[in-house]
């Protein structure tokens, strides 16, 4: 009888040791991102690193930094069930977990970005989106439309675009940047007046 009791207790403690190791790995976390606004900065990209524009600039050295403001909230997870046999769990031995992965859900992803330039002293806005490009894979500039068509569920929150075709751009202008989300919600922001060297 004593042997049976000792055997049952040994099995209970051995299984508790096994389950305490496997039950203590970190959970995967999921966050939901909601965009709340937009910030735009005009840059001189002629040097090694972009600098904010302080005076006149050549058109081929002009770029824009577009930052989306957002809130992230952790998505609730189901609590894990543990196998405790009535004993409190302690990690008895070191075990390797698969790792903690973080996933991101965009509640309302970016659909596209439009860029307008003022003309005739601000009386008219012209669409100059095709005049700008964004670097893809660190090697080539592509149109903004092509860049956003690559992914339906975009997770980036900062973009740096470069003026690649200056034929439509007035010598003195204010740029209006409009970010459209898939739901139809839009955020807009203007730059200061940019005077280009001719």
Reconstruct the topology from this structure:
Elements: H1 2-22, E1 29-44, E2 51-52, E3 62-74, E4 102-106, E5 110-119, E6 124-127, E7 132-136, E8 140-143, H2 144-149, E9 158-163, E10 172-173, E11 175-181, E12 186-190, E13 194-195
Parallel strand pairs: 1-4
Antiparallel strand pairs: 1-2, 1-3, 3-9, 5-6, 5-11, 7-8, 7-9, 10-13, 11-12
Can you offer a commentary on this structure?
It contains two helices and 13 strands; from the N terminus they run αββββββββαβββββ. The termini are far apart. It has a domain at 36-71 and 108-195: Immunoglobulin-like (Sandwich). The model has no long low-confidence stretch (mean pLDDT 79). The strands form three sheets. Strands 1, 2, 3, 4, 7, 8 and 9 form a seven-stranded mixed sheet that branches. The chain is mainly beta and 198 residues long. The relative contact order is 0.23.
First-to-last CA distance: 100 Å
Average pLDDT number: 79
Instruction: Say how many strands there are.
Output: 13
What is the class of the domain at 36-71 and 108-195 in the CATH system?
Mainly Beta
Query: Major sheet: size, sense and barrel closure?
Result: 7 strands, mixed
């Amino acid at each position: 009888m004593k042997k049976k009791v000792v055997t049952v207790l040994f099995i209970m403690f051995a299984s508790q040791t096994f389950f305490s190791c496997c039950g203590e790995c970190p959970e995967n976390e999921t966050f939901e991102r909601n965009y709340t606004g937009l910030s735009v900065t005009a840059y001189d990209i002629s040097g090694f690193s972009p600098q904010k524009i302080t005076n006149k600039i050549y058109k081929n050295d002009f770029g824009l930094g577009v930052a989306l403001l957002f809130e992230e909230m952790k998505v609730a997870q189901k609590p894990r069930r543990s196998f405790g046999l009535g004993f409190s769990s302690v990690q008895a031995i070191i075990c390797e977990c698969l790792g903690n992965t973080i996933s991101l859900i965009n509640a309302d992803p970016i659909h596209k970005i439009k860029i307008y330039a003022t003309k005739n002293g601000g009386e008219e806005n012209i669409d100059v989106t095709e005049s700008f490009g964004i670097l893809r894979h660190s090697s080539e500039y592509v149109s903004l439309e092509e860049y956003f068509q690559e992914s339906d569920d975009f997770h980036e929150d900062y973009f740096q675009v470069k003026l690649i075709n200056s034929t439509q751009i007035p010598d003195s202008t204010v740029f209006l940047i409009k970010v459209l989300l898939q739901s139809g919600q839009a955020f807009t922001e203007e730059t200061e007046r940019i005077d280009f060297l001719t």
